[in-house]
Amino acid sequence: MDITINNRTVSLLADETILQVAARMGIDIPNMCYKEGLGHINSCMICMVKNVASGEFVPACSTKAVSGMVVETDTDEIRNMRREGLELLLSEHVGDCEAPCTSVCPAGLNIPQIIRDLQKGLLVGDVAAIKEQVTSYAALCINCDAPCERVCRRGRIDQAVSIRLLVLYFAGIDLSDTGAAVPPLPAHVRRKFNSHFGKLLPGDKDIFLREASQVGRIEAKENTAKGFVAEEAVPESLRCLHCDCRKLEQCKLRDYADEYDAKQVAFKGVERGQFAKCDEHDSVIFEQGKCIKCGICIAITEKCSDAVGLEFSGRGYDLFVGVPFGDMLSDGLKMAAAESVQSCPTGALAWKNG
Ligand code: SF4
Ligand code: SF4
Q: Residue 111 belongs to what domain range?
């Protein structure tokens, strides 16, 4: 009762899949639509491995390991197949990983996250506690010519968010404080795959503005030499469109795109699909364009017996995840909300406040 994976042979336990045996051997097989205890959904096919005896490619997450099997999990042939599968998923992906402001920041500051943290702190009246989360790179903002503001999406609608002053306010750095030391730039800046959906299409603007204040840009009038005061920072922070991904560092699709050098090829010369964001749930954001239709959230709502839950609608390329009968997301995701957000392999389901 042995199986050989990548030239190593181990004994089989009862009822194991190839994925489970490999995990026991410390061999990592990529997967996105598999979650222990939810059954086999078999939609992403990123876990394909080769059964050497038959020459067939099989999904490791749902294929039972059989005695005598010889399996390869990481050859060039398999890696190419995975890259093509990822590129297919990315071809339908509508939504950014990093927001434009973060992509051009010399220190790679996660600006929309800083703005959300700023709002959380201001709302609970404890900015000091969250200031510690900001790296010392915010000191760069003092002498920076703010490329973030030149590419800010809000600027395509009216005026850019006053990012530089908000970051300085959040970090508690005075505009006149020119002596702040800045450490070497972090190595992670622009290391990873980044989805970018480019210019706003008709209809995108209204979707983004639902999450933002409609007022024009607020200038630091009261205390110009020091930057913003709270009465200015709060309303200005509310102008951010949050056009980033709230699961920037927890997205399996992004991680695998990086690992397999997958490219987002579809949007070259082709108009992309409509951007969509459902933000009526108290705490969860759902971005349809980032969904890979893995079905994990649907299985979780069934397991948690949420009264309404989620379901697949449509067919083929038009398949999408939604709430039955066109109900609200807040009806569909109740008991299952936390587990669904945590288990969604992409940024499609994310906590609103990051
Ligand atoms: S709207 Fe907010 S997240 Fe989008 S680019 Fe401007 S500051 Fe960044
Ligand atoms: S929302 Fe997330 S968990 Fe649900 S089907 Fe889409 S990618 Fe999968």
A: 100-237
